[in-house]
Structures are given as structure tokens and as C-alpha cells.
Design goal:
Layout: E1 5-10, H1 14-25, H2 27-34, E2 38-44, E3 60-61, E4 76-79, H3 86-97, E5 101-104, H4 107-124, E6 128-129, H5 140-147, E7 153-159, H6 162-173, H7 178-188, H8 196-199, H9 202-216, E8 226-227, H10 235-243, E9 246-257, E10 260-271, E11 283-290, E12 294-301, H11 305-320, E13 339-340, E14 347-357, H12 362-372, E15 377-384, E16 390-397, E17 400-401, H13 402-413, E18 423-427
Parallel strand pairs: 1-2, 1-4, 2-3, 4-5, 5-6, 8-10, 10-13, 10-18
Antiparallel strand pairs: 7-9, 7-11, 9-10, 11-12, 14-16, 14-17, 14-18, 15-16
Helix pairs in contact: 1-11, 3-4, 4-9, 6-7, 12-13
Length: 430
């Protein structure tokens, strides 16, 4: 009879509670699939008395989660505390140093310290698993690291934040303003404790940094991810995108080529007919391109108790089966430092939205500013603004450079007829 695998759960928020529920309710199923029983030995959280809707009395309570790394009969610590540093990082390092495997859903920590943790895991012969840190219920880490292991991957991109995808979906489908949909997701509890993580693209950037390492064998390099959120998106942009044949999504995109790594998170306009453009509400979706598989597409729930807890338990089952290979699917010592690609090196098409006085010569002034910067127009539309005497000008450019586009916007903003800073969105041909 195989010895049970004993785990300690640090953090009993929605995901931690979900993990406990799955391990209890699917006990026999998990035993069959793992080849041994997985037992909870200890739990820890900020409050012992909080009602979480589950019975925690069968498990040892640990007041200080950091102490879990020192419990003799624990084989795996599940870190669900969160935060790139602090107790989560301390617990994670000590767990691996004490020759215990680590399973985490902490995207910020892995994005910032993935290479360090991978090295600790390798040196101590234990596993570091983090499937739950990226895209919740979509097993994208395993798909890339195992299912597509025979391929040289060329790019990974996708919708990596369900909250912002929900917001953009309902701004379009229900005609809500940004402020209206922000109030709704706040009331529904969809936002992270720090809303900037969602709204400013930081959450998606954490996930992208991890995916880059898994896909390309590079060291996690969060500091060189270009990040831009959705706060500037207005209803007028949603409408203009539709008229131009596009839909707005917040995408994370990473590409590795000749030792250089491009990592970007920002709103994009993409062809409305693309499969990823049809992914709505709180769903995530990832696209992975490789030399022998061409293109693969993955869609599912990206967050929440069920999907994320499911990914945590899947990692436990993997470890129970004896799968303790390299965290990023190649030896930690061989992870490379890639040369970052600046957003200023981008070439592509752009959408521009301008609010100006509705008077003679406005269009000529705008086109002259674009021409002076070497930016040519593909499509242009004019719409009355809410205030009489004001007009919105929407432009889709031909291919140009990021620097030329920035120069053009600076020229436009200097025009006396322009009433607010000009807004732009990159158009991606995927």
C-alpha cells in the first residue's frame, strides 16, 4: 500500500477552500488517479474563527504559515497566500530548502522570482508547480511544457484577465460606459483587492512573464513586460472598432526570436472574425504557435474557486505520480537571459481617436500632422460628440512605427482645435 501524500494548505481564501473541497469530495477519484491517497495534514490562514463553509477541525491549525515549511510529516506545501514577496516568498523558499515540494497559485511571486525558486527546487530534488498561477482552469502550463514539447514555439498570446474581458464584453454588448461597468464589477466582487492589478494590466503581465519562460526557456523577466491597461477605453472606441471591423481585447503577447524577447500587455483591436475575438465575459483564451503544430487554441474559465483549485489539485496529482521534473521544463541552470524588445521597436497599424472643435480646417490640420510624421491613413470617420460644436475623429492608420505614431500624436495634441489628449490603440494582425 502506497504511503499517503501529506499536504499543508497556506491560505484559505476562495481557492484554498476550493482545494479542501476537492480533496474531500473527490478523495477516491484522486487516489485512483494519483496512485496514492492525498491527505491534508495542516492548514493556515489569518483568521481561525472565520466561517468558510467547510469543516477544518480534522486538520492541524498552524498560526504562522511560515512554520509549515518545518512540519516533518508534510510532503508538499500549497502556497495560496499571494503577493510577490513577504510571507509567501519566505514560505516558498523555506519549503524548497527543506526538501518539500511546492504548489502555488501565486502568479506575482513566480513572475518575479521564478528562476530563483526553480533553482532551489532543482538543487533539492523537489517539485515546483504553478499551473494555477496562469489561466485558472486552462491547463496551459502543462500543454506548453508537455503536450507541445516537441515544437519550437514562436509566439504565445491571449486573453489572460477575465475581469477586464468581462468589462470590455459588456461595454460592447450593453453599451455601458467604462465607469458604469467598473461599478458593476466592483459590486460583483470581480476585481482584485488592488483593482490596479486588473485594470492596469499587471495581473495579465504576471501571467505573460511566466508563459514566456515556459514557452521559450527564458528566465522570468517581469520588469521588461510592456504594460498598459484598459482605463482609457471609452464607448466611442468600442463603436469605432466595430465600424472598422475590429473588436477591442486586452491581450498579452510574447514572442522569442534570435535571442530577443518581446513581452507586451495592452489593449488591441483585432479582426472580429478571429476565434479569440469571440471569447466573451470572464473567459480566458490562449493561442500558442509552433513550428510543427502551427496554431493551437485554448479557452476556459481563467479564475474563481473551482477552476483555480482544480489546477492546484492537478499539480498535487502530478507530484504524487512522481513527476518532479524541472519547473520550467528545462534545467534551471540553462534558463537564458533574453534581450528585451522595447515597445518602441513595434511596427504595425494603429487606431487614433481625437476630440476636436467642429470647425473648418480641422481635418486638414490633423492629416497634415500625420503626414509630417510619416503616418498614412487607411480609414477615417467623423462623429458628433456629446457636446454641440465638438467632434470625434477616428482614424485607422496603415503600417507605421511606434515612434512615428507617438510623434504624430504629439503634433496632433499641439493643435489648438484639439480638446483632450489623443488616444491610440494598437491594431494587431494575428
Amino acid at each position: 500500500m502506497s504511503t499517503p501524500l501529506k499536504v499543508a494548505v497556506a491560505g484559505l481564501g476562495n481557492v484554498g477552500v476550493g482545494v479542501v473541497k476537492i480533496l474531500e469530495q473527490h478523495k477516491e477519484l484522486i487516489k485512483e488517479r494519483a496512485g496514492r491517497e492525498i491527505q491534508i495534514a495542516a492548514v493556515s490562514a489569518r483568521s481561525k474563527t472565520q466561517d468558510r463553509g467547510i469543516d477544518l477541525s480534522p486538520y492541524a491549525w498552524v498560526d504562522n504559515a511560515a512554520d509549515m515549511a518545518d512540519i516533518d510529516d508534510v510532503d508538499i506545501v500549497i502556497e495560496l497566500i499571494g503577493g510577490e514577496d513577504g510571507i509567501a516568498y519566505t514560505l516558498s523558499q523555506n519549503t524548497l530548502k527543506n526538501v518539500k515540494s511546492l504548489v502555488t497559485a501565486n502568479k506575482a511571486m513566480v513572475a518575479h522570482h521564478g528562476a530563483v525558486l526553480a533553482d532551489l527546487a532543482q538543487n533539492n530534488g523537489v517539485a515546483l508547480r504553478y499551473e494555477a498561477a496562469v489561466a485558472g482552469g486552462i491547463p496551459i502550463i502543462k500543454a506548453i511544457g508537455e503536450g507541445l514539447a516537441a515544437n519550437e514555439l514562436t509566439q504565445v498570446y491571449g486573453i489572460m484577465n477575465g475581469t477586464t474581458n468581462y468589462m470590455l464584453t459588456h461595454m460592447e454588448s450593453r453599451g455601458l460606459s467604462y465607469d458604469e461597468i467598473l461599478d458593476e464589477v466592483t459590486e460583483l466582487g470581480y476585481l482584485e483587492a488592488d483593482p490596479a492589478l486588473d485594470l492596469d494590466g499587471i495581473d495579465a503581465a504576471h501571467k505573460l512573464a511566466i508563459l514566456s519562460s515556459v514557452a521559450f526557456g527564458t528566465k522570468t523577466d517581469f520588469k521588461n513586460v510592456y504594460i498598459e491597461g484598459i482605463r482609457k477605453i471609452a464607448g466611442i472606441d468600442i463603436d469605432n472598432a466595430k465600424e472598422f471591423g475590429f473588436r477591442i481585447k486586452l491581450l498579452g503577447m510574447t514572442k522569442y526570436e534570435n535571442g530577443t524577447l518581446s513581452q507586451r500587455v495592452h489593449p488591441v483591436m483585432i479582426d472580429r472574425n478571429l476565434p479569440i475575438a469571440s471569447v466573451m465575459d470572464g473567459f480566458n483564451a490562449l493561442v500558442v504557435d509552433g513550428d510543427y503544430i502551427d496554431r493551437t487554441f485554448y479557452q476556459g474559465r481563467g479564475a474563481g474557486e473551482g477552476p483555480t483549485a482544480s489546477a492546484v489539485v492537478a499539480d498535487l496529482i502530478d507530484i504524487a505520480r512522481g513527476h518532479t521534473g524541472a519547473a520550467f521544463y528545462k534545467p534551471a541552470s540553462t534558463l537564458v537571459d533574453a534581450e528585451p524588445v522595447s515597445i518602441n521597436q513595434r511596427k504595425g497599424e494603429y487606431y487614433i481617436r481625437i476630440l476636436a472643435n467642429d470647425e473648418t480646417g480641422v481635418m486638414a490640420d490633423i492629416t497634415s500632422a500625420l503626414k509630417a510624421s510619416g503616418v498614412s491613413i487607411d480609414q477615417m470617420k467623423q462623429k458628433p460628440a456629446e457636446v454641440q460644436g465638438k467632434v470625434y475623429v477616428a482614424i485607422a492608420t496603415h503600417e507605421t512605427t511606434e515612434t512615428a505614431l507617438r510623434d504624430a500624436i504629439n503634433r496632433i495634441n499641439e493643435l489648438s482645435v484639439v480638446l483632450e489628449p489623443t488616444m491610440s490603440i494598437r491594431i494587431e494582425k494575428l
